[in-house]
Amino acid sequence: SIGEKNNGFDVLYHNMKHGQISSKELTDFIRERATIEEVYARSMTKLAKSAGNFSQLGTFAPVWDVFKTSTEKLASCHLELVRKLQELIKDVQKYVDDQAKVHKKTKEEVASTNGAVQTIQTTGVALQKSKENYNAKTVDQERLRKEGATQREVDKAGVKAKKATEAYKGLVEKYATAKSEFEQKMAETAQKFQNIEESHIVHMKDIIQSYAQSVDETHVQIGEVHTEFLGNMENTSVESLIQKLAESKGTGKERPVWLCVMFCSNSFYSSSDSEDEDEPRKFRVEIKPVAPNNGTHQSRATIDELKASIGNISLSPPTTVRQFFITVHSFDLSLSLSLSIPHNSLSLLLFLSFFLSLYRSPFLSLPLSGTSRGPSPVTLASQDALPIAVAFTESVNAYFKGADPTKCIVKITGDMTLSFPMGIIKVFTSNPSPAVLTFKLKSTSKLEQILPNQTLLFSDPSQSDTNTKDFWFNMQALTSYLRKASEQNPAASYYNVDILKYQVSSNGIQSTPLNLAVYWKCTPTTTDLRLDYRYNPESMLYPGPLSNVQVLVPVDGEVINMQSLPNAVWNSELNKSLWKLSDISEKSDNEGSGSLRAKFELSDGPSTPTTLAVQFMSEGSTLSGVDMELLGAGYRLSLNKKRFATGMYRTKI
């Protein structure tokens, strides 16, 4: 459109310049969002540190580790969003710079159009004045003729009218030429401006799409962290908290021995009153069995052992001799000693410590220093098989295109993690040559790629069996890794080690646990949406239910009302609808098949079909079927946990 008074060129040119302003403002918006996310992430990191500094006493103490880990992961999610937004800002800034170059070049290219605009505007003004003059002179000549003026006056007016007519005619022709040139150049320039504007809008939408995707991915990650947090809290039972307290604060599994040492006030045990007080005294040993509560006798030391051991004790030369009466009571033995030893506190303490170690007491209480507890149960049973746990976690990423199953793109990846109890570190560090931890990775035929932790694992690349693969640990590196982990988090009851990652071969839609097909119908006033889904047990070796199923659908066009089946929740701030579904399995209605339907009423339609996001998880099985078997002696598998969840699970028409 030329526009009023031929001002269309100015309107289009300034609109192009406004595009650059919009780009800069979008940069400022994304930068401000990144700043907010960074401040929030740092606050979460600070909160995580606070959780780590909370009281480590009491049964509730391990829960703070769950809070700390979850909060640290949330902080990482927001920091990752900051990184993505900062990268996006660089892209936008580059676009702003390129945009400025395009605008400068365009300004030079349309300079002739600007000249044509000025020419037609100037000619138009002159033409209007000439027309007005022509009309005035013609009317004046006609008036003189009607009023009977002299012929001379009439002729004079005629000359003026003729000049006005010729001038007006010339300007009409000039305006026609200027108009033709203007319209030709303006059409070319308008098309150029339109191309620039279309490219600008497309680029801006791409930027916003990247922005929205980054935020959406962060929300998905945050959801996964919350899901993990809930799972950890569900697994943190009352029994497990009490068990952890018993393991960390317990004083041993043996029933305690009570030690009573009584110092007699100037009463010496001697054979005669005239005997020298500095002469070492003899001692008397009395052992009296006590009737057991449970009907069993579990005496740890025999009379002969006690006599032999005490007889071999060597103490420092006596200075002053005192008499002590020692009584030891346990649930299976009562023992009384009356002896004379030098009055030397260190010697006495050494003697008592030796005596109790002989009796194998797990608990020592001396005022004649506090308490000390025995080693952890794992250390005490180091000669037995040591417990470790394994977890397989897989992520399925899928992109469905409309309702065409042949266009489904699938990628499945997995992680294998081993968990070592705290006490195993003492076994490794106290043993210069601990048993080599060796395992077999089974059912690997569906794995396209296996990436072991090369710092910790060895494997034989010449293995010919495509369905299994053997690995063994670098025990020195493993010990060093676990020692460092325990130093960083000494309160932890176990330590996780990521040992390998893998990628699972996929067969399109047949490898997806939940098949999807989406249909959109968009009009200026309404949008109809249908999402068909089908549970696919063939994708799993051991089919299990899909839980925490959620479907998120962005809808633009200013939604004013939504009707859905089953019921969904509409978020007007995010312009998204959310379905939360119960578990899906073969036991569900229609064997796990169903549809989500929604009708959106719009005030600024039509909508543009967008990408739908789906999330779910499954406990107890994997998509690959991969498993682990321990080889050799020295270790036992206490837990084998398997799960898979969605990564980027999307569908678009």
UniProtKB/TrEMBL annotation:
Residues 1-241 form the F-BAR domain. Signal peptide: none annotated. Keywords: Coated pit, Coiled coil, Endocytosis, Membrane, Phosphoprotein. One of its GO terms (biological process) is clathrin-dependent endocytosis. GO terms for cellular component: clathrin-coated pit; clathrin-coated vesicle; plasma membrane; presynapse. It is found in: Membrane, Clathrin-coated pit. SMART domains: FCH (SM00055). This is F-BAR domain only protein 2. It comes from Oncorhynchus tshawytscha (Chinook salmon).
